[in-house]
Specification:
Layout: E1 26-34, E2 37-44, E3 51-56, E4 64-67, E5 69-71, E6 74-79, E7 87-95, E8 100-102, E9 106-109, E10 122-124, E11 128-130, E12 134-139, E13 146-150, E14 161-162, E15 167-169, E16 173-180, E17 190-196, E18 215-218, H1 224-238, E19 251-255, E20 258-266, E21 271-275, E22 283-290, E23 308-317, E24 321-323, E25 332-337, E26 340-342, E27 355-357, E28 360-366, E29 372-376, E30 379-384, E31 389-393, E32 408-411, E33 414-418, E34 422-425, E35 431-436, E36 438-442, E37 454-458, E38 462-465, H2 471-479, E39 483-486, E40 490-493, E41 497-499, E42 505-508, E43 513-516, E44 523-525, E45 532-539, E46 545-551, E47 566-574, E48 582-588, E49 594-602, E50 620-624, E51 630-637, E52 644-646, E53 651-659, E54 682-684, E55 691-700, E56 709-715, E57 722-731, E58 737-742, E59 756-761
Organism: Amycolatopsis mediterranei (strain S699)
Protein name: CBM56 domain-containing protein
Signal peptide: 1-22
Length: 762
């Protein structure tokens, strides 16, 4: 059954945030007809044309999306296959007088005597940007619940102020609230951030915008020969590792819904390929979307197949096998592969990828010569391969955990995920951006049972950034309440881009590259709810920036669990094209942020004069200060001090790939402040008491001075709440050594480019 997509609603004039959830419009409950069944009931106050329920928690099944059955005004669905202790997480999409609404999430414990979690509070009007003070109503869908709230950004408790009526929000602030009821579990924290005193609402943009000269838009009415000619021209410009890798050409290939026969898109550097349907199957390519070791200079290996992507389309491969032989920064998302998927070059040469998410592969996915790979929330026919570190979460068809022999690590679910925003064309030919819903304990593609749950926003709410735009024009659009859509290009910034409005979406295609000039920080995101960053490349300028991207102000403490900021397919580069400098690449201060596939890279090669120990200087790739931050697919390489510093409590990482810096001149210049040899790749702060990570690899290649060593790759507090699983070190070509894997555990890296493995720590 298709899950209907909840539309974004404008509740007040000029409001650009998502609509308030109409929590007072319904009642809901769960009963148990038998020990293995749960009946979910939903009664709308206003008769509804339809009600869909979405739920997870049935053993062996991912998220289910079901059209409920109406009986005398109450809509019902029976869930089977349950046992005592299973926890159903469920929510509803319902129609009311034309528009449709999403409810909060509810939970029900099977066999728990009907005890439920109190529905999380909702806010009306919702958090957002407003020109004047607002009067805010807080409500819970649970009858008889008491609401307690704070207005200073702190987390509410049972002793916080009791909500007794509408509250005034005269200036910018964050309101947090919980709902409590005797005999029930207290609700999760809800949060709404209000920005008061700036213009509310993006000046209307076009719904059929001009995306500029670097975006190719194909439709099924075009001849295959015409399409192929354009694809071949772009590929010839973008394919060469020696000349295109650090060039400034950027391009996107966008396919409108329909079927394309005999189309073969070879994907070169800085090229995004994407379907413009709402779901992957809306665009079908009977042909190929291919990455291989294309050039003679590649010598059959794919170790530098960076910065390219494929997303949101179906491929029926011409030879039965799709090939995506990539290295870092080359995501494969929302893809429907109607055959097999080969992640290695046709030559079987080495490759250093890679990342798959929200994807279905009908046949076998084979990594073969890939050193490491991460697959999230997908469905595979089967998997074959494993060199050092293959990690899966929420993926059916994945192998069982057998690390280190073979080196496979599998989590049944991904704790939290929210799939990427993406561009599509609606039935009237207008462009929209789809905004997928947050999912918890996730397994399988978001579109496996129909449309991806979520809302969409019209392009009239997006400022399209093109050649000629400046930091000033982009900041003006942000201040006016616009989202941003970056087209392929290079954008020099002489001032920081300030993202202050909750629920702002910044979406890029074709690897738009943001270059800070004069030492400014490229982008600062406020500590607000729901910002989505996707598809950007930050390239450090020649004057040192303290940070390229910062999420949340220092000291941020508000909870954003219900609506986190997401940083997805966002990449950082220090050197390579320019002699760039940046002390830190990404700093995350906001709690609950999801870092979903980043590559932070201090270049080890590039244009002449752009690489060297004292040339492209950079201390650290990622610094996490916020609580409960989740990283899924973390690639950080070659920084000059700690690669990752994690100070926040409750952090989690699923998959980490790292190389230490190649160009350390001598040991004396690279000893940690504690006095041990070298800097750890991944350092958890000494005050952290809770942190967990799975599938981590750190490699050394101290090519400038092979006498250099690092005492350990992972440095963590010795406490029971800090736990690591499936981690390893490797000395590539035996250029230098790593003495221990984690703290004092694990042996020294031997010759032969073979790993030292630690199954779990402590």
């Amino acid at each position: 059954m298709l899950a209907l997509v909840a539309s974004a609603l404008l509740v007040a004039a000029g409001l650009t945030a998502p609509a308030a959830l109409a929590a007072d419009d319904y009642t809901q409950s769960v009963t148990q007809p038998s020990s293995t069944q749960a009946q979910i009931n939903f009664t709308p106050t206003t008769p509804a044309l339809y009600v869909d329920v979405h739920y997870t928690g049935v053993p062996g099944l991912g998220q289910q999306n079901v059209r409920m059955t109406n009986g005398s005004g109450t809509w019902r669905t029976t869930v089977n296959g349950l046992s005592s202790g299973n926890v159903l997480d469920y929510w509803f999409t319902y129609e009311k007088n034309g528009p449709q609404y999403d409810t909060p999430h509810f939970s029900y414990t099977v066999g728990g005597g009907g005890t439920t979690t109190v529905a999380a509070p909702t806010f009306s009007p919702p958090g957002g940007t407003y020109s004047s003070a607002q009067t805010v109503t807080i409500s819970s869908a649970t009858a008889g619940a008491t609401i307690r709230y704070t207005v200073d950004g702190s987390t509410p408790t049972a002793s916080s102020t009791v909500y007794s009526g509408p509250i005034s929000v005269p200036n910018s602030r964050t309101v947090n609230a919980i709902a409590l009821k005797s005999g029930s579990t207290t609700s999760p924290v809800s949060s709404a951030s209000y920005t008061i005193g700036t213009q509310a609402g993006c000046p209307t943009q076009s719904d059929t915008p001009n995306f500029g000269p670097n975006v190719r838009i194909f439709d099924p009415g075009m001849s295959a020969a015409t399409i192929q000619a354009q694809l071949d021209t772009d590929f010839n410009n973008q394919k060469d590792t020696l000349t295109a890798q650090f060039a400034e050409r950027r391009v996107a290939h966008l396919f409108k819904p329909g079927t394309y026969n005999n189309v073969h898109d070879n994907v070169g550097f800085y090229t995004s390929v994407a379907g413009l349907g709402q779901n992957p199957g809306d665009v079908l390519i009977n042909g190929d979307v291919t990455v291989d070791a294309f050039n003679a200079s590649d010598n059959g290996v794919a170790l530098q197949n960076f910065w390219r992507s494929a997303e949101n389309l179906a491929v029926n491969p011409s030879g039965g096998q799709e090939r995506w032989a990539v290295a870092q920064a080359a995501p494969f998302r929302r893809m429907d592969v109607r055959g097999g998927l080969q992640l290695y070059p046709a030559s079987y040469g080495y490759a250093s990828g890679g990342y798959i998410a929200d994807t279905k592969v009908a046949g076998q996915a084979a990594s073969v010569s890939q050193q490491q790979w991460y697959t999230r929330d997908s469905a595979l026919g089967s998997w074959n391969g494993g060199v050092w570190n293959m990690v899966f979460s929420g993926t059916s068809g994945a192998p069982a955990t057998t690390f280190p022999n073979p080196p496979e690590t599998t989590l049944a679910t991904t704790p939290v995920s929210r799939d990427v925003p993406y561009l599509y064309v609606d039935g009237t030919g207008k462009y929209r951006v789809f905004l997928p819903s947050l999912r918890t304990n996730v397994s399988g593609p978001s579109w496996a049972n129909g449309s991806t749950p979520g809302t969409s926003a019209p392009m009239s709410q997006f400022y399209v950034v093109k050649s000629g735009d400046t930091a000033a024009s982009i900041n003006n659009a942000l201040a006016a309440g616009c989202n941003l859509f970056f087209t392929p290009g290079i954008y020099h910034l002489n001032q920081t881009l300030n993202v202050t409005r909750a629920n702002t979406t910044i979406l890029g295609i074709g690897y738009p590259t943001l270059v800070p000039d004069n030492g400014v920080n490229a982008m600062q995101v406020s500590d607000v709810d729901g910002v989505r960053l996707k598809g950007l490349l930050f390239d450090a300028g020649t004057a040192n920036s303290q940070a390229l991207l910062t999420v949340g102000q220092s000291g941020s403490s508000a909870s954003h669990a219900a609506n986190p900021t997401t940083v997805q397919d966002v990449f950082f580069r220090i050197g390579g094209e320019l002699a760039g400098k940046a002390t830190n690449s990404l700093i995350v201060n906001s709690s609950d942020t999801i870092i979903d596939h980043i590559w932070a890279w201090r270049a080890d090669h590039g244009n002449a004069g752009t690489v060297g120990w004292n040339t492209n200087t950079a201390d650290t790739g990622l610094v996490v200060n916020g609580a409960n931050v989740l990283a899924t697919g973390l690639f950080v390489e070659h920084y000059q001090k700690y690669q990752v510093i994690w100070n926040g409590q409750g952090g989690k990482t699923i998959f980490f790939q790292n190389e230490m810096p190649y160009d350390v001149p001598n040991q004396a210049s690279w000893n940690a402040p504690s006095g041990v040899a070298g800097y750890a790749a991944y350092k958890v702060g000494s005050n952290v008491t809770s942190h967990e990570a799975w599938g981590l690899g750190s490699y050394c290649f101290f090519d400038t001075n092979p006498a250099v060593s690092s005492y350990h790759a992972f440095e963590v507090p010795n406490t029971s709440g800090v736990r690591f699983h499936s981690l390893l070190t490797v000395s590539l070509n035996y250029r230098g050594t790593i003495t221990h894997v984690i703290n004092d555990t694990g042996g020294t890296t031997p010759s032969g480019t073979v790993p030292v493995n630690v199954v779990s720590y402590p």
